[in-house]
Amino acid sequence: MLTLIKRISTSSMSSIPSPSLSKTLTDPKSCLMGSSRLAALAQQLRLYKHPPTFDDEEEERIEKSGDKVVSQVGFVESATPVKSEKFRPKRAAVLICLFEGECGDLRVILTKRSSGLSTHSGEVALPGGKADEGDADDFQTATREAHEEIGLDPSLVNVVTVLEPFLSKHLLRVIPVIGILPDIKAFTPTLCVAEVEAVFDAPLEMFLKDENRRSEEREWMGDKYLIHFFDYEIDNKKYVIWGLTAGILIRAASVVYKRPPNFIEQNPKFKLPKAVDKDVTMP
């Protein structure tokens, strides 16, 4: 499996390679190459279509009416003010990059965000970010951001599908993109230390289990929902994977393993208020 990397720098332009991770990936005892299982998974996921939300025509109609349903399964991480009077949801994408571990399990690459960031500082996240005007689609947004953050070459990733949109605490419409990394040995992480403090991996199936999990109930526009927290330890480092990231991974694991989690998700249907101003907060 991947070895934890931790690099902190005050330079916003710096990036650093990880010798320790590179050594792990070239270990002759490692068996992290692509397999028939990954090929079958890629084929399975290419056929996946997320549950219907709304088509383009309906989305345009709802946007004009000012009562847009953003996500059927999204959820928020903490309270945040919204300053815009006329809301136009911005788009973002994250990469759920899966690879096969030493024991044949499916694992997902995660990051710990830099403590110096203005939002989500020090939190566990999936590689990703806001869409650029030049991005052709969500696939490009997710893989471009992963390349910028952790040095993952897009050509190494077999992008296979997207999940339904999620809603972040900053009212971003986040699209989860699932990609498969057939040859993990080809990936030598290089961290953008202004954004990422560490990169590590976790077993995807963990997000279907009730072990090391807790939850908190929140409410948004009359809907009660649960925020899930997963406690995880690797290489003597402890992480909490929660909120938006946990919700996306629960959904991804359900799709990959074709079964629901061993706990109640309690996902709400989010609607944005007609008037969004600085006094509107999401718990």
Which assembly state applies to the chains in this document? single chain
Distance between the termini: 36 Å
The main sheet comes to: 8 strands, mixed
Written as H for each helix and E for each strand, in order along the chain, the element string is: EHHHEEEEEEHEEEEEEEEHEE
Q: In percent, how much strand structure appears in the residues?
A: 25-35%
Residue runs with pLDDT of under 50 for 5 or more positions: 3-33, 54-58, 66-85
- The total of helices stands at 5
Mean pLDDT: 77
Bin the helical content.
10-25%
Which structural class should the secondary elements be placed in? alpha+beta
**What is the molecular shape?**
globular
Strand element count:
17
Layout of SSEs?
Elements: E1 15-17, H1 19-25, H2 36-46, H3 56-65, E2 69-71, E3 81-82, E4 90-100, E5 106-113, E6 124-125, E7 128-130, H4 138-150, E8 158-162, E9 166-167, E10 172-180, E11 190-192, E12 196-203, E13 213-220, E14 223-234, E15 237-242, H5 243-257, E16 270-271, E17 280-281
Parallel strand pairs: 4-10
Antiparallel strand pairs: 1-11, 2-16, 3-17, 4-5, 4-7, 5-6, 5-12, 8-10, 9-10, 13-14, 14-15
Question: How is this structure best described in words?
Answer:
There is one protein chain. With about 280 residues, this protein is of the alpha+beta class. The chain has five helices and 17 strands. Strands 4, 5, 6, 7, 8, 9, 10 and 12 form an eight-stranded mixed sheet that branches. A three-stranded antiparallel sheet has the order 13-14-15. A two-stranded antiparallel sheet has the order 1-11. A hairpin with a 5-residue loop joins strand 4 and strand 5 (about 105-115). The longest helix is centred in the C-terminal third of the chain and has 15 residues, at about 245-255. It is globular and about 50 Å long. It starts with 14 loop residues before the first strand and ends with a strand. The model is unreliable at about 5-35, about 55-60 and about 65-85 (pLDDT under 50).
